[in-house]
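Annex B. Sample input.
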Amino acid sequence: MKLKNIFVAGLALITLAACGAATTTKEDSKTAEAPKKVVVGVNGTKHEQWDYLQKELKEKENIELEIKEFEDYVTPNTAVEDGSVDLNAFQTIIYLEKFNKEKGTHVKPIAYTVIAPMGVYSKKLSALSELKDGDKVAIPNDTSNNSRALRLLHAAGVIKLDDVKNTLVTKDNIVENPKNIDIIELPAGQTYRALDEVAISVINSGYAVEAGLDPKTEAKFLEEVTDSSQPYYNVIAVKEGRENEEIFKTIIKYYQTKETAKIIEESTKGASIPVWEKATLK
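Annex B, continued. Sample output.
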């Protein structure tokens, strides 16, 4: 009788252990798998929203997000093109379209992120009305940001363009320059570094924030966001042919949330405005 009881008790323990092992295996199967690695290219060192997503995706989706920092507006796209980066998030839709056309690359936008209004900054002037004859003005030299800067100077009353609706104007489109300003074209990442050398500089918001500037309080003139601002919406982009990969859809789902929007608002002091609820990419 005692031997029978011992056998039954032992069998029960084995059964419970087996059930427990099965439960553990099922619950931990996701974390037991090797994480899926994705490399995202960003511009600069301030990327709080991606830091947040890095933790969320690892914890909830077993996706290991590596954040690769770039200092310019060219290599994040060439890195996507050559496959060393899976996706990037730093540029406007109009910049990407022009980049692909000029460089022969095949980088495709898959989701909207934010709009970051461009601003006019100065260390020497308290207002644009103080501009003097022949003052030097720095603006980005790439096609889309160059045009955007010229349109901003038109809106600020510094120059006058022949067609302000043209999103690809150049200096040749200036029809009035009452202060005879000397426009110096520099790589976008150099415009904030030129502040000591010029009267005013037109700086992309990302670079301004990176330099410690507060666009909402320190810009002498800030770009207005309107219904016609869509060409300047920033995007997440991948190599053409990869746009339907499920892992990218998962990343977009986690990015386009209220939590991420709040982090963007706080980390940029309101300088970057989430736009994914305003429009969707077709």
